[in-house]
Specification:
Length: about 250
């Protein structure tokens, strides 16, 4: 991670876009990755556990410091959460525009989908502006509770990304909340039959192969990092970077 650089000279960094329903843990995952890489719990991406609606309102790029003078060569983009109704949450069309690099950093999402000519519209995206990896995020215990409309939206985004050749993975968060075995010992996450069932169920819903779906726990209540939590986060992150690097090399 520390020494990674895209081999494609047209890209200075790898862009990873997170999407999923409200409260899935997208912002918490960004904080968790930074916590792992910096060796201390970080809370740069704002989160909220009580609002019931998306706390993320802007399209924002997060860079993670790598030493005193530089940053890691991958960035995360957080996006407003998906909701059941069409007039709440992020619009699917806005996510598709983000995938193509048409959404400028800092764009404030609103009830109407972005159109060409809007203040936050980027008419001439570069390879750096485009998304190189799409990550679907869902709490492990909520797979069977996903609303059909939210699933349909996630599926539509996935198919659009596939048409663009963008690689995709998924992360199931909050495994310790969903599974007593994982809560007792986070190292049991990949041994749990219940969590394996959730992975298989989500694979069927979204169409992703199970080996592209990762289990993890975000840093949410901890004040210090732990190797066992770090390992799950790094496992998912490494595959995101591997898939994104393959995508850039194929262009």
């Amino acid at each position: 991670m520390k020494w990674y650089k895209p081999r494609n000279n047209e890209a200075s960094r790898l862009r990873i876009l997170l999407h999923g329903p409200v409260g899935a843990g997208k912002s918490s995952f960004i904080n968790s990755v930074e916590s792992v890489l910096r060796g201390r719990v970080a809370v740069r991406a704002p989160t909220d556990a009580t609002s019931g609606s998306s706390f993320t309102k802007q399209y924002k790029t997060y860079k993670i410091p790598n030493g005193p003078d530089g940053f890691y060569s991958f960035v995360f983009n957080d996006i407003m959460g998906l909701e059941q109704t069409d007039n709440r949450g992020v619009h699917v069309e806005d996510i598709k525009l983000a995938l193509r690099g048409h959404v400028k950093d800092g764009y404030q999402f609103n009830p109407n989908p972005m159109t060409e000519g809007d203040r936050g519209y980027n008419p001439s995206p570069t390879l750096d502006d485009r998304v190189h990896v799409l990550v679907s995020v869902i709490p492990a215990g909520s797979v069977s509770l996903l609303n059909d409309k939210v699933v349909k939206k996630m599926r539509e985004v996935r198919l659009a990304a596939s048409d663009m050749g963008i690689p995709q993975v998924a992360i199931l968060t909050k495994v310790d909340v969903a599974c007593a075995e994982a809560k007792k010992n986070i190292n049991n996450a990949y041994k749990s039959k219940y969590l394996k069932k959730q992975v298989d169920m989500f694979s069927e819903l979204l169409g992703l192969p199970p080996n592209c779906i990762f289990l993890l726990k975000n840093y949410e209540s901890e004040t210090n990092t732990h190797n066992s939590i770090d390992a799950l986060i790094l496992c998912a992150l490494r595959q995101m970077i591997n898939y994104g690097e393959d995508f850039l090399n194929d262009l």
